[in-house]
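Subject: Sanity check before I submit

Could someone independently write out the structure tokens for this chain? I want to compare against mine line by line before I put it in a report. The sequence has 247 residues.
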Amino acid sequence: MAVVLYEDSEHKCVAFTDLVEGEGVQANQFAIVHQGHGMLLDPGGNLVYKQLFAQISDYFAPSNMQYVFASHADPDIISCLNGLLLMTDAKVLIAQEWERFLPHFCQKGISAGRLVSIPAQGLNISLQGLELKVLPAHYLHTVGNFHIYDPISKILFSGDVGASFVDNDVAATTVTNVSEHVNNHGVIEFHQRYMTSNKACKLWVQMIRSLDVEWIVPQHGSSYKGKETVEAFLGWFENLQCGIDLL
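---
Independent answer below. Compare away.
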């Protein structure tokens, strides 16, 4: 199912949900479209590739795909890369630490000249003149981890931060009560296990509060929409004891 998160005459943000069938990890895939050109975010693996590629053509021509962004190098993030490189001219944005791993998902030589390394401090990337912010989120949950902030929609695409495990039919919904959500949808358990430390959480929250964020949209599960809900989630996350804090 495709859900338009934001739309104006020049700009769209789209979520593709519930594409995983069978036993694979359910994940959301995203596209940012500006003036008819697109960036695909965390496009997933072979379980979703055919459906995703068919659906993105409703929003922009695959020939106008400028970038594929990988927040990190997990299989549910970017293992469909070979097909995307074959079918488009897009370049792939990924952390310097993971650049050498991506060719393992591809036919020999197909990724040559197509990978763009993201430096540790992040960068701004231009999509048809729109500056998107690629923000560092290291150790949340991996080294070489990044998120995307879109200043037009004011959406933060937050990767695994904020992830939850909800039924497929509500994966596109927004959280109305952060306290209830984190206590009942595996949020606490997931973040305690997969986020590295409270220090990483606090530094990330400090950075996010410096931006005008109206919607946090994770790769898994429901999203956090509205200033009050965003702040409630940030307040919970900055105080989370996790990872090495619990050893």
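---
OP: Matches mine. For the report I'm noting this point. DSSP finds seven helices and 13 strands in the chain.
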